[in-house]
Amino acid sequence: MTKITEQTSSPEASDRKSESCSSTVENNTEKQQFEQNQKLKLKLSRIKHKIAIISGKGGVGKSTVTANLAMAFAMNGSVVGVLDADIHGPCIPKMLGIKRQAMMGGPGGMLFPITGKLGVKVVSMDFFLPSDEAPVIWRGPLKMRALQQFLSDVAWGDLDYLFIDLPPGTGDEPLSIMHLIPDMDGVVIVTMPSEVSEAVVKKSVTFAKQIGVPVIGIVENLSGYVCPDCGKKIDIFKSGGGKRISRDLSVPYLGDIPIDPQICDDSDNGLTFMAEKPDLPTAKTFAEIVTKIKQFLENKTTAGEKAQ
Ligand SMILES: Nc1ncnc2c1ncn2[C@@H]1O[C@H](COP(=O)(O)OP(=O)(O)OP(=O)(O)O)[C@@H](O)[C@H]1O
Ligand SMILES: [Mg+2]
Ligand SMILES: [Zn+2]
Known about the structure:
By secondary structure, the chain is an alpha/beta fold. It has a single domain (about 5-300), classed as Rossmann fold (3-Layer(aba) Sandwich). It contains 12 helices and 10 strands. Helix 6 (about 140-150) runs parallel beside helix 7 (about 170-180) and helix 8 runs parallel beside helix 9. The N and C termini lie far apart (about 40 Å).
């Protein structure tokens, strides 16, 4: 795991390491693979609920939704972890107001997550980078390995919820995460209200359906702008796309979040509206999204108990 930092220094170094890394993977004996899988299973068995946040397009607000979900559930007294699985563009630590720092190691190569506000435990590639500007230039297998280590070599402990923030689309990271966490409770799909986005969000729904992960629901972010002067809502990108898609594809609709310049400023300063401004109308709407997610998990548990 400590090698991760070295691998970010240059593309050449990254390629060399990636080759040596994949050959290490190949050299792994079946026994080692088995042990690794057992370790992963054990870690996952101590996490009650796992929820991934996905989208078809970039920049629609996945990380904002992840950060606010984490705070909302932690505020209700749950033990929460966030896995920032955006290897190339990790931003969860910044959004949660956690300064860059190295994760501490323990016996047997175990790593300890960084704990932020309300005890939320965070693991991110950001903690392995030497600076804000350092890029991660990795191919798929190396990313998969890093994500596996983020799950199996980290002392997550007992968690009520693990939220996983993913990069956009259906590439290496989402696929790896779904493969590594076979008992994922479901995915929350974030979209914005425009036709183009409708087409891409359908891809996310199809992705989830094809890999057999339940869709908890769709959140429509950047849904209208509330004028700070007169309070009138202006639909800059149109609105209602999320609701329409949910109807078309028979997946639940969780709610919408308007464009609020304050959200942008606050997230740059490590503040989430759920924790810092619970009285804002946006926070109240978001609380309804949280309730629907809880309801989904309760129904799932009840259905599971009945089936037993
Ligand atoms: N409702 C909103 N109102 C105003 N700004 C917002 C809102 N939602 C998100 N933002 C801002 O938009 C930017 C992109 O949001 P965010 O990083 O959450 O998107 P993302 O989907 O995670 O992006 P990426 O695909 O790059 O991971 C951020 O600066 C964030 O603060
Ligand atoms: Mg993001
Ligand atoms: Zn106005």
